[in-house]
Amino acid sequence: MAETLAELYEELKDCKRCPLGKTRTNLVFGHGNEKADLLFVGEAPGHNEDIQGKPFVGAAGQLLDKLLNSIGLERSQVYIANILKCRPPQNRDPLPSEIETCKPFLSKQIEIISPKVVCTLGRFATQVILDKNISISKVRGKRFEGNGHYIFPIFHPAAALYRRTNLDDLKADFLTLKELLSSKVDELPQKEEGSEQLMFF
Asked: pLDDT of 102-142, one tens digit each?
């Protein structure tokens, strides 16, 4: 089994484990610092990502960069991945079978990177990571305990491109994210209001 991201990429680069392997332009493995304290998880590649082979390269990615800058971070300091590594046709929602095929590879990425915080972007990524059919509006900005890391759901940046209230919430959540990054995960506080304990996957 792969022990580095490079080895995992070699294992995945020609993946045809599900039908998306036949329709993609590029596999979007993930990108960033493999020793990052902060790992973002999105839903799936879109059109621009499929063309370039990198996650979050469109307008939502530009907003993500600005939000990172607002707490003193650059994209080069974090890692960004998706639930799916290939773009679903017409950007449809991932199918359960596609998620089950791809999820072990995301889990392995998280294991290799060993971040302090796994930040889920939007409803779909949050539901998959928390394994709960739950509204993103009910859990955004709340801290969950993963396996040696925090899980922190926030709105997807794309949602903030069209709704100012979502952008205000994102800005506030990034300030909380900054606080989480400065805390010690091995000294997680006891469960309190607004916080839940949950094992990853």
From this structure: 999 999 999 999 999 999 999 999 999 999 999 999 999 99
- Distinct helix (H) and strand (E) counts, the chain: 9, 7
Q: Domain spans of the chain?
A: 21-182
- Kindly state which CATH superfamily the domain 21-182 is placed in: Uracil-DNA glycosylase-like domain (3.40.470.10)
pLDDT at 198: 44
Reported pTM? 0.90
User: How far, in Å, CA of 157 to CA of 137, rounded?
Assistant: 14
CB neighbourhood size of 113 (10 A): 22
Looking only at the bridges linking them, the beta strands covering 117-121 and 38-42 are parallel
Tokens found for residue 141? 């900005």
Rounded Cα distance, 35 and 29, in Å: 16
